[in-house]
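Hey, I'm writing a tutorial for new members on how sequence and structure tokens pair up, and I'd like a real worked example in the thread rather than a made-up one. If someone can provide the structure for the chain below, I'll link this post from the tutorial.
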Amino acid sequence: MKVKVGLITFMILLILKLSYAIEINYKPSTFEIFNDGHAIRIKPTDEASKQNIVIYRNTKYLLKDVHIVIWDDKAPEIHFLHISANPSLGRRDKVDDVLVIAVKFSPEGKVNETLERIIKNLHRGIGIKEKVDKLNVGNLLPDKVVPFKEIQRDIRIPIPSSEALWLILQNPLLVSPKQYKELKNLKLERFTNSPLEENN
């Protein structure tokens, strides 16, 4: 009986481990930082996109965009948007072809040096791009990326109406109170339907 219980426990733990099996490999790379009027965009160059990858459910994804979204009455969020390295028939309308990792900001930490570089290089004017080298966006993820919730929903930016697979991290990204306030004070279009809020 004990053997059977032990086996069941092992199988449950194995299933939980496999369900959270994700490999994130972001490297210091070159990005363009700009305000598009809707979000702070941190866009990798074509070469940087190939260097920053995620493997989830045996699918390799290339990082195509990172955007910080500001809300009036909710915590700011950062969304890491990826496209499958081998999209189905070259199309982007299959859910598994687009992967978004989403995380909330929390003002309960210390200064995040990567975020500090982004804020300093961000022009307040819309569309003015600043190229930044050796930026590691992996530092914009919390120390623990699991657990997370998996949902399917569309993306509004930067590929409107595309269906995507979202991984919503349950641990926030801790930044300093000053950085959090600076994000909240940015003049960007405010959205009202956060995927993080909808699925709590």
